[in-house]
Amino acid sequence: MVNANFRINDDGVLEQKCNKHHLNFPDENPWMPFNTDYFYKHNTCKTGLFPTCIRCWGIKTDKWQKDNPEAKRISKKKYDAKDERVLIRREYATELRKTDYHKKYYHANSDQFKQYNYQHTNHRITKEEWIACKQYFNNCCAYCGLPIEDHIGKYNGKVKQRDFQKDHFYHDGGNQLNNCIPSCKKCNTRKWQFDFEEWYKKQPFYSKERYNCIIQWLTEDCYQYMKFE
Ligand SMILES: [Zn+2]
Ligand SMILES: [Zn+2]
User: Is the model's pTM score more than 0.90?
Assistant: First the structure.
């Protein structure tokens, strides 16, 4: 599968070159990890994902909708229906995870799952960057303020402290430190794909101070710690 549009980067991650990036973002690196953070799924495409990145695809769709205003209404309907299907599939997947079949399957393929999770999240952040990021937020969940000592989970029946998750602040954003927020597992799940502004202000644990801290980190302070390649 490695050809002109694919390469393996220095971290061993498969990347695809967006075929429209040079038109839309000529100053940006067109290579992105080959996963659904960057490319939509495409069932009839041989590779499984679109050759155009999510952002470029959005530009193309906006343009098409402007040129075809009457089609927008229909396509929105379709989109809503698709969203609902995704939700149903997610619920189904959650149920499935509780079954013995899934447990067996997971154990038999755990390496692949680990590999997928590794590739799917966070691989552009170094250990040092991640430590600095957590320290910036006083080692508390940036959203709800839960201290990391209280972030616990069960492993093989034993209760242990667990690391925070590297939340993708912008769901469609990159895998680097400037899109990374330390989040407890609950907040990571709660936030899911929702828009931060809208989502955060509705939460019972909303805090203006933490809100400002998050914005300050993403817009300015994270760059002090970012290691550029
Ligand atoms: Zn692109
Ligand atoms: Zn939290």
Answer: no
